[in-house]
Design goal:
By secondary structure, the chain is an all-alpha fold. It has four helices and no strands. The protein is elongated and about 80 Å long.
Amino acid sequence: MYEPIRTKSVHSMADDAGYPHRSREEELDIQLAGHLAALLALTDELRALAPSADLDDAAEQLSQQVARLRGGVRPPRSAVAAAVHEPHLAALHQRAHALAGRALVVAASRADTAAAILAAGRMDAHADATRLVGAS
């Protein structure tokens, strides 16, 4: 009545040897390094617009953490030139605060104390800066 199936089912499990696999920890390392690298880029942008020793220290710490997560490879640094229209500092601080929050979540799930402390500190600093810039 029915013809037997002659081809492999599309619902069968894929061949595991076909592509590389990463562990959960490796995936979290990649994700955390990405969040911290994005935060570093924003920090460099903020440093170009409103230089401060706090931002210089934060950029160096972020760079060290990204290098640690990437096996010693330092992240590329942004050489931000003055834009045609100066971005609003409060908006940059808000974006940096959100990125630091994402990094904190990943660092906490990865149990990376150093990165979590750095991310929490950056969240506080950007929240304070947002209030100061918004008040002026």
